[in-house]
Structures are given as C-alpha cells and as structure tokens.
Amino acid sequence: MLISTDWIKDFVSIPEMSPKDLGVKFTLGTAEVEEVLVVGEHLEKIRVAEILEIEKHPEADKLNLVTFNFGDKENKRVVCGASNVKVGLKTAYAPLGVSLPNGLVLEPKKIRGVLSEGMLCSEEELGFAQDSAGIIELPSDAPIGQNMIDYYNETKDVILDVDNKSLTHRPDLWGHYGLAREFGAIFEQELKNPYNDSWANDLRAKFTSGPSPITPKLEGESACKAYFGLSVDNVKVEESPNWMKKRLISVGLRPINNIVDISNYVMLELGMPLHIFDRDQIKDNQIIIKKLGTTAEFITLDEEKRNLIESDTVICDADGPLVIGGLMGGLSSGVTDDTTKVFIEVANWHASMVRSTSTRLGLRTDSSQRYEKNLDSKLCERTMLRTLDLILELCPEAKVVGKLEYDGDDLNAIEILELQTSFKKINKVLGLEVSNERILSIFNALDFKVTANGDDLSVTIPSYRSTKDIDCEADLIEEIGRIIGYDNIDPISPKLTIEPVRLTSAQALHRKLRDFLVYNMNSFEVNSYPLIGEKLLSKCSWPTQSGLNLLNSISKDHSIMRDSIVPNALAIAATNVKNYDDFSFFEIGRTYHLDKANFAAEKSELIIAMYSKESTPFMDLVNGTSRLLNASNIPFDLSERHPKFKNELISEEWVGVHPFEFYNIRIMGKMKGVITSIHPLILKQYKIKGHLSIAVVDLSQVESRPLKDKVKYRPLSKFPSSTFDCTVVTGEHTPVSEVLSSLKKIKIKELQSTKVVDIFTMDTKEKAITLRSVFMDEEKTLDGEFITQSSQKIVDELQKAGFPLKS
After folding, report:
1. What secondary structure does DSSP assign to 619-665, as a single string?
2. pLDDT (tens digit per residue) in 233-284
3. For strand 582-595 and strand 524-525, is the pairing parallel, antiparallel, or unpaired?
4. Rounded distance, CA 650 to CA 750, Å?
5. What phi and psi, each to the nearest 5 degrees, are found at residue 609?
6. Residue 709 and residue 636: Cα distance in Å, rounded?
7. Distance CA 569, CA 592 (A)
8. Terminal CA-to-CA distance of the chain, rounded, Å?
9. What is the dihedral of CA 384, 387, 388, 389, to 10 degrees?
10. Predicted model pTM
11. For 174-239, where are the E strands, in sequence order?
12. Which DSSP helix (H) or strand (E) runs through 606?
C-alpha cells in the first residue's frame, strides 16, 4: 500500500526529517515500510529553457540539434526529435544526472555521433500526463532558469510503500486519515479532525424533505452488514482537478473522471470503499441486496465474465445483479460521460464471506482487500458525507434528492469494548518506566477514552479498533510499547527457571528412529506437503483417496489431504535421480483418512526409500528396516502376501507393487507395515532409471504408549566367529523368504544368523542367491571339523528343500 505524506499533512504535522528516517520511524511504530520514494524530486532540477537555434542533425533527417538558454552563463545543445520544436519556444530542460519518473537517468550520450547534454522534456516525461506528442510548450512569460517545482508551485511528496501483510490486523489503517492518527501518536502531534459534527450537520442540511428516488432493501440473510444510499442529481462528469489527479497518481491509481475519482479518493482517504451508480441505469429505481439464489454469468467493470453461485451476495435492480457485494460493480452499473444522476452506495460486508467469494472468483480488488479486514459499520455515514462533500465541491450545480437511506444491522446495538489495565502492569510488561502522563497521552492520541482511578485504568476502545485488532489487556500494553518504540526498550532476558523438557512417547520414538536412520542407514530426512493434488495421484496410479478435499484450495496441486506418503516419496525420488546414482531418504509424517464418526482420522507413518541405479536395494532395505525396528523395540515379523489378511498401507492391487520383492510387516499381530520394490511401470512414469524400494510403517499404534527397553547388555565374545557362504540356485520367481525359511529346521545352537548377501539373475531364467551363515561359541573357539560338519548340514538342508548349490 502506498502512503502519501503530502496527503497525511492534511491532518497532522510531520517533523522535518529525511525520507529514510521517516520510513524507519513508521516501521518501528506501526507497520513495515518496504520502500521510500520521493515524488517530484526531479522537478527541482528541471528548468525553464528558451530555444535559440535549430540545426538539422547531420546523420538523421528526423532529428534536430537544438541550442537553448536555460539561465546559465553558457548555452547548451541537445539532440531533439520532437516535431513541435521551434525558435523562441519556452520548454523544460532536464540536465545530466536527472532521474525521470519513467525510470530514465540522463547520462552523457552520443546520438548518431553527436553528444547530447540532457533532454528537452514532454509532459509525459515530466510525469504530468499518461502520453504526449512533442515537448512541453510553456507560456512566453515563463522565467528562464526557474525550476519546474517553483514554476508550477508544486511540492515534493514522500511516498511510503507499506507491506500489506503488516496491515492485515489493522482495518483502520487502510485510509490516510487513520494513518495520520498513527503519525500523530508517533511524533506527538495533534490530529486535525475536519469531519466534526459541524461539518456533518452542514452536509445533512443539503438533504431534502421529499421522497428518495431509491430506498435500498436487504432481503434475507446475506453478506451485507450495513447499507447506506444517497441520490444526487445534476452531476457533471468531467476531468478531475489537478490536485486530485496528482494524489491518486502518487498512490498508484489512474484518474478516470471526477465522479469515479471521488469514489477512489474517499476510499483512500477514509479507508471505506464505496460505489457510485448511474441512477438512470437502475431499473425501476430498485436496489435490493440479497443472496443470488441461483447460478449466473456476470460481467464486471473490468469486462471479465464471472460465474456466480447461489450463495454469492449481489446488489440487484428489477432486472438482476448490478454489483458483486464487496468486490466489484457490473459493466452496466458504472458512471459514463453522459451520467447526470447518481446513486451513492456506502456499505459494509461480512469479511469471511467477501474473502470466500473473492478467492473462488480469483477477483482481488481494493474494495475486497479492505472489507476482508473487518471494517467498522459506524464509519459508513462519515464516508457518505465526505463523498457528497467532494461531489458538491467539484459539481457546484449538484443537488441531493431525498435523504440518506439505510438498511442493515442496528448500529446503536454495536457493543462498546471496555478493557481494564493499570499503570503498574503496563510498565511491568514493557520492562520500562513510562510516566503516567505519557501513557495517557498515547491512549488519547490513539482515540482511546481512558478513565483513571488511582493506578487502575478503564479504557474504552473506539469501534474501528475493536472489530479485529484490540480485544484484551495485552493489546493495550502493545499499543503503548510500539508508540514508545521497541528500540527504546533495553533487551533484558527474563529470569525464569530452566527445566528439561520431558519428551512424549511419540517424540522419543521419532527421535530414536531419526537417529538410527541417519547414523546407521545413511538416510536423509525429507518433509513433504500433506496437501496433494489429483495430478500427483494419477501419475503414480494411486488406487485410493482420503476423501478429504479442500473447498477453497490455494491451487489444484494442494487440494486433497493425503492418505499416504508414497506418492510424495515417488516425486522426491524422481527429483533426486537426476543428481545421484544411489541415495536413501525417509519421512515421518501424517496421513489423513475419512472417519464417519469423527469426520477424519490421522495416522503417523514412516516411509523409507532406497534407490540404486545398478542393482535392487530391496534386501538392503529389508535388513535395514529389521535392524531399525529391533533397535526401536518394536515387536515385528516379516511375512509373505496372505490371501486373507491384507495390508492397510499399500494395496496389493496397486500397479506399483513389485510381484516378487514384497514383504508384509506384522506389528503386534496386525499388518502395520510393508516393504516392496516399485514396479518398473511406475518408475517409467517418473523417468526413473534404476531400482527403487520403499518401506512404510504405521507408527500410530506404537507411538501412543512407551515401549519397554528390552535391550540386554553382555560382554563382547572373547572368541572369534566363523562365516560360511554358499550360493544356491532357485526358480526365477521363488521368494527369498522361502530359502531362508528352509533353514529354520536346523538345530545348531552355535548358528548365530543366516542372511542374504546377494541375488543375481542367470541366463537360464533362474536366480542365484548367496547366503552367509555365522557360527560362534562364546565359551570356546570352534574347530575346523565342527564348522565343516555344520556347513554340510546347511547345504544338505537347502538341497532337501530343492535349492541345490550353484555349480
């Protein structure tokens, strides 16, 4: 939002200081200033010049070499292409170094081989017009050498560009009068109030006793809180005066005509939007505010088609909608050059309804920005009177027809907020001794009415601050603190007892999982958005949806609450395969599921993904996940697909499930996990060349209660272990678990473990599996004969099960 300090000075004095210091002061006291601009600074350096001589450019037919006198001892010469250049003409000369409003900085430059020492300016280049033909022509009596700012009796204006987000909680700061109140409080200057009772009564005296041509009417429930209407005749639509155009341009608005400009000017001055209708375009002189009740296509003032729905609030005449309430008028509702009769609307709307409609239509306007901030309905009448004031000033022949009409909530029923605090409490919270007189003066400057009873204070909040901003004692203390200046408060650490934070069982489990995955499995943690889109689900052919769809999503890619982390993990893997040949990552996140009893249920899930460009990481993931669950004291066992008991985390019908590399994880008797490789068909969708395996574990059951630490410590064995490797041949589709299961029958107490070392496919459509068995006795060193006999037992058992040694 752009703030004109020249406009602010209509209501309060601002001490002399640099524009930068002014921006810093306002940032510390009220809202963040992103940029400080000085408008009109260039006019100080641009001077009146008289053309003395014109020569043709030797290298260009359409250019001239113009010599002129601009009040210095020596004349200057520039290259000029304007068609209206002539000897004796007085115009504006911008010397080298001047920065023009269009962003051009004048530097020494050769134009077709001739050096040009500055520029003769047009009205457009001076910032006086949107476009122009030729250089500006000044009257013959214009004093040579006088700068433009003195010649036009202009003033420089400092523009503060304030971050809108820092004003979100302050509906009173969306107009210059409300901002002037802040400047007055910060700089301890008195705020002028031109909108007093005398001013209001003078304008009310313009009303007539006859009937109003239009009486607005609210029908049923709608977004409208308050609606004022006033009819005025004999208006004349023409160009606005320079002072109004200048101010509108300075804050980023384009002047259109006096009536439209008045509506924008009042909005920027008082912070309350309004709309001015051409009354002749209102059918049967009816203004009805209601919910549309049906779907309709509506063309707004920007000539865009908008699709309205039943719940949208509209302002209608006898034929249909004229305005979308709180957003924008229709194409036929605006003022034209032929307008002579107007109907002025000043209304207030429910913030949430305006925001909802604005978001759905993708229509964000100056009006909707303000209505979304919870404006004060009590300010509508003042806005109406100020609008009438300017119309009568710019159109002296204009006459009010009837009186001010109103429909809406009872404004007298709006509750007055009164809060209690004390001088002692304010100083204690701020950590700064502020005098009672200073505290009272700040409250008074901010228009808070204070009744003091000794140390206690009863503070009455103005209605325009209680709609959204001020609602508790802490807010009152904040007001004092920010006006005093937080930079004036010494930062002192509070004296607090420091106690260690005890982790919940879920936090302790998550920390243990993270530590193991990072330190033992070389895995990186990632975090993905729980909001996903249909595009992500369809890309991986994900078979289910949570059914939890957002009504007003930010985008289509963030419109569904995810029911699995797997689609996110696939997208992350696809990004990383572009840069790495091997990697592993994990995420501990939430998934969301429709629940008829409680609307929605959340689950905490862990997903681990391993990728290798050369070979499948499936067995590494199986071993790593097993070690992880053991280290976390989570009781589990791995099992093959079961015809009856299905896994809840990944449907076996999903096309991404690998036909052979698949394990269910049973936790506490329930299928609460799965380890699988991703099918090449899905990898192809993501352009992943290589092998990707994932493990998904539902942590919801185990994280809700602390698991007992079952770790048993024992000394390291004094005696060495011995390993025996063998490679067996199996069918191409034989699960590895079947090979391992065949060795469970062997009763050798010294056999510590048997694990899969490697798997590779042979040309004969068979595969070879390398197993490693570890033997160890904690009481003695195993002799060679025992190891040979035990190894033979393993080989015999494998052959008996149909898994012969590879020859």
Report:
1. HHHHHHHHHHHHHTT--EEEE---SS---SSS-TTSTTEEEEEEEEE
2. 999 999 999 899 989 988 989 899 999 999 999 999 999 999 999 999 999 9
3. parallel
4. 38
5. -125, 135
6. 15
7. 16
8. 81
9. 120
10. 0.65
11. 217-218, 224-233
12. strand 599-612
